Structures are given as structure tokens and as C-alpha cells.
Amino acid sequence: MQEQLYRVLVINPGSTSTKIGVFDNDVLIMEKTIRHSSQAIAGFSSIIDQYAFRKQTILEALDEEGMNVSNLSAVCGRGGLLRPIEGGTYSVNETMLEDLRRGYSGQHASNLGGIIAFEIASGLNIPSFIVDPVVVDELDPIARVSGFSLISRKSIFHALNQKAVARRYAMDKGRKYNELNLIVTHMGGGITVGAHSGGRVIEVNNGLHGDGPFSPERAGTVPAGDLVELCFSGQYYRHEIMKKLVGQGGLVGYLGTNDAVTVEKRIQKGDKEAELIYEAMAYQVAREIGSASAVLRGNVDAIILTGGLAYGKGFVESITERVNWIADVAVYPGENELQALAEGAVRVLKGEENAKIYPLG
Length: 361
Ligand SMILES: Nc1ncnc2c1ncn2[C@@H]1O[C@H](COP(=O)(O)OP(=O)(O)OP(=O)(O)O)[C@@H](O)[C@H]1O
Ligand SMILES: CCCC(=O)O
Prior knowledge:
six-stranded mixed sheet, alpha/beta, 13 strands, binds adenosine-5'-triphosphate, Nucleotidyltransferase, domain 5, five-stranded mixed sheet, binds butanoic acid
């Protein structure tokens, strides 16, 4: 019998781009990255204000590629800063739309994913979904304790790519994801290191404005007392400090660029400051992996390195030589987010899974 074919449009809005793909089941038939210049983005005062502009660019891109939207079975967007929820595929509903519009847990480009998916899908009378948003929260209770009773640790991380790559690793090894203990390290504009056990991410750093290694544009963990002193020194406004932590932190703060390729070129030309900072970023990633290995009591099947920085050979080597005594290191450069969105939607369309209802419980 012929397999039923579902055509799914997937939408992944990032800070400087909107990536879209069209899949027939899990097979990619069209992919496009629409880049937004900083001038185009700067014209909007908030993420949500970009909604009509981004939706229009998506529809134009589909039109240019000759994609007839009336053949779609569903639309799936990357979910944003919602309430903390467990991983999986969720139907877009009114509560979710409201939370995405007001940025329940903050502002992030992916807040637009579910909204645009819903708008396109409802015009076609087809379902819309989100999959594994950045707020997926499967932390063990012990991981929430920060040590400061007024603040709990939060789970904000690259859930979509971490889960997709972990599943891919399991498939490559002929194993089931939920049988493995994995340390998955996503290294992009932000860096998150997750301890995956029994199919759940029981510990992970909050890669947005929480903790963990510094990254191309984020500060990660900073000494708390010194940060408090700086906040009250009268030198900076609140939004300026926030920007120094997220956006202008990490490599940007030290070296003026978020582009690791540029940093590598500077190192090749003998820039010692660039060498120290780049090495420090690898050192902090390795330190976070070591910490995740303790969470898993040393019972680690593999350490997985993924995201754009995993293309950097020297960077990967520098991490690997510090952590390969813990477990084998597998490298999956780049990200697999469009594919993961499509697979999440198709699992539901085929009836292999039920779509979850937001918010759970
Ligand atoms: N070939 C390469 N060698 C070294 N670094 C690379 C290479 N290609 C990309 N990078 C670096 O990867 C980083 C961006 O990674 P990525 O594209 O995963 O981030 P993003 O999607 O913008 O953010 P995030 O992954 O946090 O959502 C940049 O610093 C970029 O310079
Ligand atoms: C940490 C959440 C995803 C991102 O890097 O923006």
C-alpha cells in the first residue's frame, strides 16, 4: 500500500533570518533562508511588530519557488518563550497565541513561529503546530535549586536541535533515544549543554540570559557580586546591562565580532587576544560538559557537539581533548531544526503521536 503523503510548511524565525522549508513527510523538497538586514529589523520596536513583515516575506518566497500553499497539509513553526512545558509537538491554540504575542517568558524571534504558522494554516483550514520550543522544561527538581531562594534555575535552551540530534545519534547507533545517557552541546549564537537521560533533559544551562559557558554573543555565567555592583554603579541603564549580557556579551564583548570564522582568521594572523578568548570559550564548554557528566554520575554513552561552532575543527579539538576521557565525542555540525519541525508535525499527522495541548495540566 502506498504511504500517505503529508506536505508540511515549516518556519524557523531567527534573530537575523527566517528559515523555511517544505517537506513531503520527512523529505525536504524546498528550503530557503530569508536574510533580514539589520536596518530592516531595526525599524521594528519589538519582535511581535515584525509579524506582518516576516509573514509577507515567507509568502513571497513560497510564491517565487512556485509552491502552491493550497497543497499543504499543515504548517509548523518553531515555538518561542512560552510557559515551561515538556518536549513534543503542540497544536497552536488561543492560549499559546496570547502567550507568544505578549512574550510570556520574554522576547525571542521564535515567538513569531507559532503565530505565523497559525495565521497561514487557519486561512487554509489546516492544522498548525509547534515542536520542542526553547522553553522545554524537563529538569529534575534538584536542578531548579539555584542556591538563592528568590531565584529558581530555568530551562531555556536549543531543545529542538538538541532533541533532534540526540535522536539522530541514537538512530545511527541502532539504539533508542530514551535508553541513552547523552550530553548534548549546542554551540551557536548561544551555547547550551544538556544532560539527556531516559529521553528527558534533566539538566541544562539557561542559554539565553542565565548561566553556562559564554558564547559568540552571550556572557553566560558571570560573577554575581561583581554584576550587582556594576548594575548599581550608575554607569549603565538596565537595558544596557542586559545587552552586554545577551547580544553584546561573549566573543562580541571581547573581540567585537560574533563570527567564529573571523576569530579563527585573526588567530591565524597571530592575534594572541583572540586566541586566548576563543580557547577560553572552548574551556568553558568543556567545564560545562564535565559538570553534566557528574549529573549523569559518569554514566555517559556519548558527548555530542552540534551547532555552527561545531564546524570549527580547532574549536572542536580543543573541547574534545578535555572531555574525551568521559565518553566518545560525536560531532554533528550545524543544526537540523527544519527537519525536526517537519518530523514532529508528520508524527502527529500520521497518528503516531497525539498533539499535546498547551499548556499541559
Ligand atoms: N565553518 C565554520 N567554522 C567555525 N565556526 C563557524 C563555521 N560556520 C559557522 N560558524 C560559527 O557558528 C556560529 C553560529 O552558529 P549557528 O548558525 O548555529 O547560530 P545561530 O543559529 O545564529 O544561533 P543559535 O544556534 O544559538 O540559535 C557563528 O559564530 C559562526 O561564525
Ligand atoms: C537558548 C535559546 C535559544 C537561543 O540561542 O536563542
